């Protein structure tokens, strides 16, 4: 399998009034095509910075970012993005919001085709019937579902998500995790998910990358062997000894990243 995302020895510092703030330090990681990489790390270590580099919104001081064998030097159309607080245009309906990326990257696509493509995704995430509502008429979970549709409507090579489920309650979040698997089963994409939730990282990730404290480097990579084998992952798998062991490993790694000694688990 080829690596779709390759980050090679990336080092970056922000210029601040108090001098340079080193954020990424010789960071290297790769995500094979079709894989889902979850990235966890201490708050403020540089995770969002990493997403901006992959999307081409920023250039690193040194090192290289490659997507699909091409060096990233400017913003990429082939990247879809979703954030914690989905930014939706209130003067557009949900359908019109989801169609927006197609208007930008596929101007020659006919309006009926755009609508059909958006409706296909809205149906998949359980939002058919809501396409004519305004964003403010939807719940937070529904808005995030629509935002995921918008992020993949133009079939990007890579979906980058920065804590997309962080603002949702626990049950809605679990629903969205399942939606995520359903979307991937329908149209496989390569994904990078930034999260603070270790269970989320294990349930969704094929690999979980633990970043060190700032300046961040790749501290640890866990290959997820989710109980139940191939096929759609079941939430119940999270309560198995195999998952408990993976979560304990990750928790220990986060504590190391935070510069603390690992201690007994608190549930
Ligand atoms: N544009 C900027 N200019 C200067 N400093 C910045 C800029 N953006 C981020 N920083 C600083 O860089 C560090 C890393 O920021 P970043 O947002 O990448 O962290 P993060 O891991 O996403 O944090 P969180 O977990 O809180 O979302 C932080 O200390 C932040 O204050
Ligand atoms: Mg962040």
TrEMBL record:
PROSITE patterns: ABC_TRANSPORTER_1, ABC_TRANSPORTER_2. Residues 5-238 form the ABC transporter domain. SMART domains: AAA. GO terms for molecular function: ATP binding; ATP hydrolysis activity. SUPFAM superfamilies: P-loop containing nucleoside triphosphate hydrolases. InterPro entries: AAA+_ATPase, ABC_transporter-like_ATP-bd, ABC_transporter-like_CS, ABC_transporter_ATP-bind, P-loop_NTPase. Keywords: ATP-binding, Nucleotide-binding, Transport. It comes from the Bacteria. Belongs to the ABC transporter superfamily. This is Nitrate/sulfonate/bicarbonate ABC transporter ATP-binding protein. The lineage of its organism: Bacteria, Pseudomonadati, Pseudomonadota, Alphaproteobacteria, Rhodobacterales.
